[in-house]
Amino acid sequence: MNSKQITDILLAIQATITLLISARAFYLYSRTRSDALFAIGLSMGVIGLGGICGLIGDTILVSRYFNTLWFRYIGQTVSYLFIYLASLRSLKRHSAQIKLWHIIATVLLLVLLFLTPFIPTSSNPTTLAILSGSRSVICFIIFLNYADIFMSKETRFSFLMSLAFLLITIGISIYTMKFIVPHSISFDFVGDSIRVVGLVILLVALFIG
Amino acid sequence: MDNHEQLPQTSFQRASRQQPITLTQLLRASVKMHHIDEFLTWLAYLMVRDLNIQVIQLWANQASTTNQNSIVLRATAIQDGSLPSQVLVNARVAEVVEFLLREQRGADLQPVHDIFSSHQAELLSRYGLNYCFGHFQRNSSLLPPLANTHSSHGNVATPFAMLALMFWRQFPIQSILPTVTTILEKVEPAARQGNLLLPLNTSVGHQTEPFMNEQPKHELPGSELIPHRARDLEVMREYSPFSRPAPMRSREAQRLYQAIDGRKSLAELAILTQLNTKDVEKALHQLVTQNLVQVCNKTGQPIDGPWFLE
């Protein structure tokens, strides 16, 4: 098994987890119309779609002709941002407007996805590091938010969420190192593996939290 | 409702031409039904279906043992099932209904902007409800309390005074109003025939003093306050959005909880759920003590409520 196959397996696991969460969230949303469920469903759907794009790019398409990294990184940053906004109590009153902005942002992301053939295939590593690193910044903010909630409320959900986002932050940060330190393929595996553990905990948090 | 299946699929024209059939249907239906609300709901459904009325609401006065009089929505039928209930059942509509019931009169067919506040009229127009007509009727019978309450809730039989409020998308054709009026005026005799109304001399817990000119009171303590589902406020913080709330202790609490959307005030919720003041307070008390509901003011600030926990 080569490094590319290992990366694809990790990508497939990530896509499966996020799409599972998305499907469950939209199923419950159809019954309850909860804005939080909508935010989770759409965010995880976009992240899952990014994972699928990554897999397709690696397996079917020739990755040197199609650069899906922009959609994947920006998509994750935007999606995690709306998960963060859904967790802010002060914004609960504006959930309808946030939902609208979430839909607009998702449409723009899909436009970006369809523009993939026109995106330069060989992006500057610094640009990619910024795009990839922005995900870890927003995940770290989410971690701090849940850590704060856990300190005051001590609920299982806030504990699991803070742990999940801590691991996702670390995973993405390590993964991003590969754009800064050249020829370090182990950053890919270690980063993705930690992120998978984080996503599994996120899944557990949502289903039993 | 089973009775719906027995109705012939008449068109508007047929219904207009054949009013006696409608009266026959009314009489036949009234003897088969068990409660006036079942009868009124069936009638509202029939009118919406056959007379191309977009919405019909049947409002009535409701007396209680504590002499607290209120208005209740006895039946409603809506052509477009996707129309949100809060568009039609809210404090602004209730205000107009209260006024008309108090004045014992209906309202001419007119644009909604001429009868409702500008905000409410815009809301109705947005959902394609542009014209409104109100038909008032009263008589010597007594309306039993709502089907979903019982005497322990304090509601008693009340002198029959009903306002039928109808909404149309387009200005209806001339012949529709006499048809509507004729049908509505047959409601009381048909209901009495089916023993769905009580005679005035009924002595069991009815309001003996007519209260038509009294100011209806449906104010709740904290009617300016807006209950929120506590879980909605804390979801994605303390609870997973996938988790379910704890079971409700009573049916009233369940009804109130389901109606809470974080926007409607307690007074609006009382009208929407058709619960009286006492039941709303009791249900709210249960929900708050179960940590299922948090009461906030209009700016969204949570309020600790000794007024409803006493």
Structural class of chain A: mainly alpha
- Which residues of chain A sit in consecutive blocks of at least 5 with pLDDT less than 50? none
C-alpha Rg of chain A (nearest Å): 17 Å
- N→C terminal distance of chain B: 41 Å
Number of helices of chain B: 14
Please give the number of β-strands of chain A.
0
First-to-last CA distance of chain A? 36 Å
Strand count, sense and closure of the main sheet of chain A? none
Oligomer: heterodimer
SSE pattern of chain B, N- to C-terminal: HHHHEEHHEHEEEHHEHHHHEH
- Binned strand content of chain B: 15-25%
Q: What is the SS-derived class of chain B?
A: alpha+beta
Shape of chain A: globular
Residue share in helices of chain B? 25-40%
- Biggest interface, which chains? A-B, 24 and 14 residues
State the helix count of chain A: 7
A few lines on this structure:
By secondary structure, chain A is mainly alpha-helical. Chain A has helices at residues 3-32, 35-59, 69-86, 95-114, 125-153, 156-180, 186-208. Chain A is globular, with a radius of gyration of 17 Å.
Write a structural description:
The complex is a heterodimer of chains A (209) and B (310). Chain A contains 7 helices and no strands. Chain A is mainly α and 209 residues long. In chain A, helix 2 (35-59) runs parallel beside helix 4 (95-114). Chain B is of the alpha+beta class and 310 residues long. The radius of gyration of chain B is 20 Å and the shape is globular. The N and C termini of chain B lie far apart (41 Å). The chains are: A mainly alpha (209), B alpha+beta (310).
